[in-house]
Structure to design on (232 residues):
């Protein structure tokens, strides 16, 4: 079925009132929408539907949202799908676990439709650039492929968790430009997630351990930059 914006959304929640509210507003914005009442059913549906967006409740029967997200992210055709968790204040303890399995954002209940759509639009802008940006970045034996979320160095495949990959990609897409920790936090983790600036340092260290020290430099007291190399 053709839709106004060409996007597909899967809404997963065991509260039928929330499902209907989200479905109504998403359809109004031009999404093709499917729904599921638990994580297990969501996984079965997502394999065939291949949604661009998955709105996922945390506390559900049969399979909770965190486990469902982990399994969804293991499905190759869904690796670039945006996953947004629906959460109540009482469930904030789950947020760390949810980000660890690949969540892109959180929306607090009760749902405010206009704020929700604004957040979703911002997520798609952050995650979907022009097609030319999907071309692999080649730099001195390092290849960063956004379309497959993969990194190779001198032909060897490297393992990168989601946030480490996004951090490396962001810096490589903006070579020779210094970014402060706050700027990196905003661009990689977003403004609605509370993350300490120390998190950036930890992720930079992990990235350097994998690709070596020669690609990302530190400007003392300012931040980090990805440097172009003469041999690339």
């Amino acid at each position: 079925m053709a839709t106004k914006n060409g996007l597909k959304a899967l809404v997963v929640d065991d509260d039928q009132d929330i499902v209907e509210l989200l479905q109504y507003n998403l359809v109004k914005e031009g999404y093709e929408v499917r729904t599921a009442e638990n994580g297990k059913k969501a996984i079965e549906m997502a394999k065939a539907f291949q949604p661009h967006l998955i709105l996922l409740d945390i506390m559900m029967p049969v399979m909770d949202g965190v486990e469902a997200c982990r399994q969804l992210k293991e499905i190759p055709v869904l690796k670039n799908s945006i996953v947004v968790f629906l959460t109540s204040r009482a469930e904030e303890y789950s947020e760390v676990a949810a980000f660890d399995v690949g969540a892109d954002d959180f929306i607090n209940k009760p749902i405010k439709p206009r704020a929700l759509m604004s957040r979703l639009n911002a997520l798609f802008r952050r995650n979907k650039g022009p097609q030319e940006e999907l071309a692999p970045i080649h730099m001195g034996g390092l290849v960063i492929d956004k379309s497959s979320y993969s990194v190779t160095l001198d032909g060897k495949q490297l393992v990168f968790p989601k946030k480490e990959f996004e951090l490396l990609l962001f810096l490589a897409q903006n070579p020779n430009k210094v970014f402060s920790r706050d700027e990196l936090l905003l661009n990689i983790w977003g403004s609605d997630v509370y993350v300490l600036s120390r998190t950036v340092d930890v992720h930079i260290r992990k990235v350097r351990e994998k690709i070596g020290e020669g690609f990302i430099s530190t400007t003392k007291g300012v931040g980090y930059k990805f440097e172009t190399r003469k041999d690339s």
Remarks:
- The chain has eight helices and eleven strands.
- The chain has two domains: 8-127, 131-226.
- The helical segments are 16-28, 39-49, 65-73, 95-100, 113-127, 162-173, 181-189, 198-211.
